[in-house]
Amino acid sequence: MNNREKWGSRFGFILAASGSAVGLGNIWKYPHMAGENGGGAFTIVYLICILVVGLPIVVSEFVLGRKTQLSPVGAFTSLAPNSNWKWVGMLGVSSAFIILSFYGVVGGWTLKYTFISLMGGFNELSGNPDLSGSLFSSFIAKPFSPIFWQILFMVLTIFVIVQGVKGGIEKWTKIMMPTILIILAILVIRGLTLPNGTQALDFLFKPKFEDLTASSIVLALGHAFFTLSLGMGTMITYGSYLRSDQNLLTSALWIILLDTAIAMMAGIAIFATVFAMGADPGSGPGLIFVVLPTIFPNIAGGAIWGTLFFFLLFMAALTSAISILEVITAYFIDEKGWSRAKATIIFGSFVTVVGIFCSLSMGSLNITSFMNMSFFDVLDYLSSKYMLPIVGMLTGIFVLYQWGIPELINELRIGMKNDNFNENTSIISGINIGIVLKILFIISASVIGFILINEIIANITGSPIIG
Ligand code: PFF
What we know:
two-stranded antiparallel ribbon, binds 4-fluoro-L-phenylalanine
């Protein structure tokens, strides 16, 4: 156990974990979700979800990993031997496999768009969203081109992981995360200084409670979960490479802060450009791959801004993909005794092959008609609507009823450098931390449980309880 690989520094760990959290979810999903669901009102709900529902699970995952020094399956097995809890870990590893299959496909699209922009390919799309839309749909439906870019993206992911925790994941995220922040800061400044750019601030942050529906609240909850990379054992795995001298609570807060700040900065950069160029801010998921390429050519130095933007999106996707593949690699190292290179190359290739079918299902091959969705959408739907919340909720229940809040507090205390911190420590007169944590975990697990039931009922009866 002692020769387990370790992070080189606390800073490296925080950057790697926030690299996992910051991904397509922040730059692709959050901006248009916030814009369409009440701006600031959505952001307030989203922040509450992150703090109340997300934070307890992030902390639990870190603690479970650091305590056991094992990846999810081993972590649950070692704290609850001979029980069925190991299946929660197995479900996490399976989700990693499924998510990476389609995440890798979108990762490939980001590379292709970086390349198009670099070659000046957005020029012909200037001011023509119809042309841009048909170019995008015909690209993702092609049999070979998207697969080529997906394979390249997956090869890069495998390349980083094979080099190990400190020499690969930490080294590369230490380069990529600051680069992401710098590029984003440049794009924010550039956007806000364009004429009308500041309208983006109103659009994103002015609370419009009339646009906030029950379904936006459900959306905010689901997204809080996805954006923090929860419910898959990623944070258990990253936590397992920690030495015991870290304050896990402040680390978790740092990661949440970075994740949220980057989502908001991406929103500002994107909408400032959209408003300045008079494009349609309500174009939903197509905003990034369809609308942005039509407006970059109109800004001075557009090819540079476009290339920087898609390169930023690519790096954000890569740091997340790395964390997903690491869950699978760590499982085969810990549980099957495989070498890092063997586990990564074999399973990285396996995931790539499944991803090829996802990509083909976007047009070339009619693989499935399950609920009238493409294979790509089925995998996305199953993992983000069911598998991640189920594992997240069970992790909360595990800490509450199997392992126990006092154990969690004992483990949290290590690294806090505060020996007086225990379950009876009172935070406000008469209210002790043990009780507060218990309530927080009960709320967190129940809210996730409710979202799951809501989704199941929506599927069976056609109308959800809320949403
Ligand atoms: N958090 C990533 C994003 O926002 O794009 C996605 C993700 C990564 C989900 C890792 C789950 C995971 F384990």
